[in-house]
Amino acid sequence: MQVSASITSALTAGGLACLVTLAGIYMMSYFEDWSRDNSTYFCSFAAGALITVSLLHIVPQSISMSAMAPECLLLGYMGMHMITLFISGYLCDRYPDKIYAFGLIPMIGIGLHSFIDGVIYAVAFSVSSFTGILACSGLILHEFPEGVVTFVFLRKGGFSRAKASTLAFLAAGLTTPLGTAVSYPFISVIDDSLKGSLLAVSSGVLIYVGATHLLPQTEKEPRRFSSFAMFLGVAVACLIVLSHS
């Protein structure tokens, strides 16, 4: 019964993330100015929440479950960094004049990132419902700007509005519940020590997404209340974590 509830919660989180991505694509397709002006606030809030829940809850939880947690934390952070460098650096620099340098290659990178998000949901909810809720709270919010960014890249790559919407949804939206569905059957049967190691890898990815991926975007496109949105994310995450402790 507990396993069934965990997979239901994880898949629900993945489905909700997919819907938020779809909302970002829809808003960008029909309300472009509003989406550009407000996506920074989603990034700022999500960054604050992700960093806070990772450092205050997910990292300590993983350390209590696995002796290899610190090494796995580093592996998750650096692994995500290397994947990002390969996608955005090597491939785009190698093919600067090709249409997919502005469309398909960033789409593949975002699709991989979203798939990893789905795996994180599976890992976090297999540990506990509270850990899963904390992990997905920030991740789901950052799906909105992710849908916006994917759509923009594809449009700049020369794709029509309809094709850009479809490809963005497939890459940034459906990959998240797919990652959850594919990974959960394996994660649900492993022991707690290995589960703690995977949770530490996930926390490394979450810290990377918040501190290295989202925050620089908010600094490049500052808005009047972007700092307030970030600290609001920190405050909300603190309240949730401390109320459970």
Kindly describe this structure.
It contains 9 helices and no strands. It has 245 residues and is mainly alpha-helical. It has one domain (2-29, 42-244). The longest helix has 34 residues, at 32-65. It is globular, with a radius of gyration of 17 Å.
Name a few traits of the molecule.
245 residues; mainly alpha; 9 helices; globular
How would you sum up this structure in a few lines?
This protein has helices spanning 2-30, 32-65, 69-94, 99-102, 104-127, 129-156, 161-187, 192-220, 226-244.
Question: SSE layout and pairings?
Answer:
Layout: H1 2-30, H2 32-65, H3 69-94, H4 99-102, H5 104-127, H6 129-156, H7 161-187, H8 192-220, H9 226-244
Overall helicity: over 70%
- What is the overall silhouette? globular
Total individual domains: 1
Count of extended strands: 0
Total helical segments: 9
Uncertain spans: none
Mean pLDDT: 80
Instruction: Give the N-to-C terminal Cα separation.
Output: 25 Å
**Fraction in beta strands:** under 5%
